[in-house]
Amino acid sequence: MADKFDVIVIGAGPGGYVAAIRAAQLGLKTACVEKWVNKEGKTVHGGTCLNVGCIPSKALLETSHKFVEARDHFAEIGIDLEAPKPNVAKMLEFKNSVIAKNVGGISALFKANGVTAIDGTGKVTGTKQVEVTGHDGGKTTYEADNIVIAAGSVPVEIPPTPLHEDIVVTSTGALEFTEVPKRLGVIGAGVIGLELGSVWSRLGSEVVVLEAMDTFLPMVDTAIAKETQKLLKKQGLDIKLGARVTGSEVKGNEVAVKYSDNDGEQELTFDKLIVCVGRKPYTQGVIADGVGVGLDERGFIHVDDQCRTSVPGIYAIGDCVRGPMLAHKASEEGVMVADIIAGHKAEMNYDAIPSVIYTSPEVAWVGMTEQDAKAKGIEVKTGSFPFSANGRALANNAPEGMAKIIADAETDRILGMHIVSQHAGELIAQGVIAMEFGSSAEDLALTCYAHPSTSEAIHEAALAVDGHAIHMANRKKRK
């Protein structure tokens, strides 16, 4: 038997590495097991988020956005330059440098906090045992009083579009295209599909997004979704709703995709096809038979509100449990679990988890949509404000979008905030904080905001809840 630990965490993604660091900070002897190996054969931390997800995609989104700004909008604000050209190789080089800095940062944090990094594939083999298979195939068993499973998730593959080399790929492959595809197909108009479609559309691809559902972004407030769809269409994304993919065939260096819609059977040919139809928990092989940890039919681990599994001392967090598959949700669960193991009282507010789509403009939301509230029989009042009436947004040459607040009609408590705008992912934090503290729309309306700032649109939306918006024609009389 190898070393014994107070806590062993399986997986060093945003949930796992945060849980390990927090546990170590609380004085617990902690180890974190990670199997991810880079092209050089070295174990790397950060999971999907840092290596092939959140961070690299944002690097490409930012560089491609800057390219479009220079190409299409600099002249509007008085900057003349020769027509810029995208340098995909340099963009990939920048993306990879960002990954390296983030991954290296986690390794440094492990050392600084005394977390033992174990290389290999972890498997729970007993209520207090973790077996690690090293990269050389050797097996070592570790003992731990507490085990945290943070194994993450993987992209879902679908039978009609089997992956094929670099032609039919998942989101991971879409981050490695070495040249701009002339015709790009994207299956799935969710967060990942819209972000990746935006990257390559900005760089010159003719992008068609095939979405099986008839509704665009059903998890987003209807008004915000409608505005977002209009803006993305204006940018050149051809989003086909109600388009169910039925088959594909790779022919040479292109792929023919068959799909059905209201007009019958259709076919389109692309140079590259990205399959973005969601992710599934990575739990197969992580827990040995007989341990007693319960899983549902989709592979998610059963946990309570504090991420305890059915076996005392074994916890699970992040993408392999219920709730949205978001890095920040996983991180906060990791902190909560570490605190509980250390004997502290801890909980997490699952009603105040923000979501962001990093298109341009960004889309961000927290809490209920107006349609959610009505479906639950809650009477609401809402306030909206367009960024076209915000001084800072106009000065930024970014007037697109709007902010919307949903409040309980009886108590005025904020139930949700929804934004489509430049930097919406930063602005949404106001909604998260407001909901965390149980704020009313009036609380935000009575708050003094800096001028000029795009955050003033949130202030005006809060004022608009009761018809008091200053910089917009009021629909209601002041009380």
TrEMBL record:
Binding site for FAD: K58, G122, D319, M325, L326, A327, H328
Top-rank taxon, per record: Bacteria
Residue span(s) of domain FAD/NAD(P)-binding: 5-334
Catalytic activity: N(6)-[(R)-dihydrolipoyl]-L-lysyl-[protein] + NAD(+) = N(6)-[(R)-lipoyl]-L-lysyl-[protein] + NADH + H(+)
Catalytic center residues: H451
Coiled coil: none
UniProt record, GO biological process: 2-oxoglutarate metabolic process
InterPro entries attached to this UniProt entry: Class-I_Pyr_Nuc-Dis_Oxidored, FAD/NAD-bd_sf, FAD/NAD-binding_dom, FAD/NAD-linked_Rdtase_dimer_sf, Lipoamide_DH, Pyr_nuc-diS_OxRdtase, Pyr_nucl-diS_OxRdtase_dimer, Pyr_OxRdtase_I_AS
Enzyme Commission code: 1.8.1.4
GO cellular component: cytoplasm
Cofactor names: FAD
One matching Pfam family: Pyr_redox_2
GO MF annotation, one: dihydrolipoyl dehydrogenase (NADH) activity
Major place of residence: cytoplasm
Residue ranges annotated for the Pyridine nucleotide-disulphide oxidoreductase dimerisation domain, each copy included: 353-462
Disulfide bonds: C49-C54
Family from the record: Belongs to the class-I pyridine nucleotide-disulfide oxidoreductase family.
Note: The active site is a redox-active disulfide bond.
Protein name: Dihydrolipoyl dehydrogenase
Species per Swiss-Prot/TrEMBL record: Billgrantia tianxiuensis
Top-level taxonomy: Bacteria, Pseudomonadati, Pseudomonadota, Gammaproteobacteria, Oceanospirillales
Primary gene name: lpdA
